[in-house]
């Protein structure tokens, strides 16, 4: 088995608690579905948000999902680059898998598709 990183990102329209929680679950569920990931296979999950999102910790949504209670989660603030995408939540899921790097399906939703159009075209 190898450890692979699966990237995901999504944007929200407002800095509101429920919007952040819902968007976090939406992108994580898409990553899980696209890559058939089981929480037992996950080493850790790193979450960043842009500085304009401070209404809640995105990890709160994940911690409430059945089977995800023991997955190590970490939240941080994204580097504030001038002209960067606003109101964005990014995930890096580190997973134990037999999948080759080319088989990993990264997920970019909403305006976050702009971050990696090369990986977003099929969604």
Automatic annotation (TrEMBL):
Molecular functions (GO terms): chorismate mutase activity
Residues that bind prephenate: 7, 90, 108
Natural source organism: Cohnella nanjingensis
InterPro entries: Chorismate_mutase_AroH, RutC-like_sf
EC number: 5.4.99.5
Keywords assigned by UniProt, alphabetized: Amino-acid biosynthesis, Aromatic amino acid biosynthesis, Isomerase
GO biological process: amino acid biosynthetic process; aromatic amino acid family biosynthetic process; chorismate metabolic process
One Pfam family here: CM_1
Descriptive protein name: chorismate mutase
Catalytic activity: chorismate = prephenate
The UniProt record lists the keyword GTP-binding: no
């Amino acid at each position: 088995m190898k450890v692979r990183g699966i990237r995901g990102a999504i944007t929200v329209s407002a800095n509101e608690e429920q919007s952040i929680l819902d968007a976090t679950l939406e992108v994580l569920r898409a990553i899980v579905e696209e890559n058939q990931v089981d929480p037992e296979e996950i080493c850790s999950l790193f979450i960043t948000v842009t500085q304009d999102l401070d209404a809640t910790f995105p990890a709160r949504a994940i911690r409430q999902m059945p089977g995800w209670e023991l997955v190590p989660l970490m939240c941080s603030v994204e580097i504030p680059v001038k002209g960067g995408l606003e109101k964005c939540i990014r995930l890096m899921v580190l997973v134990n898998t037999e999948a080759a790097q080319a088989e990993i399906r990264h997920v970019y939703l909403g305006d976050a598709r702009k971050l990696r159009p090369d990986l977003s075209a099929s969604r």
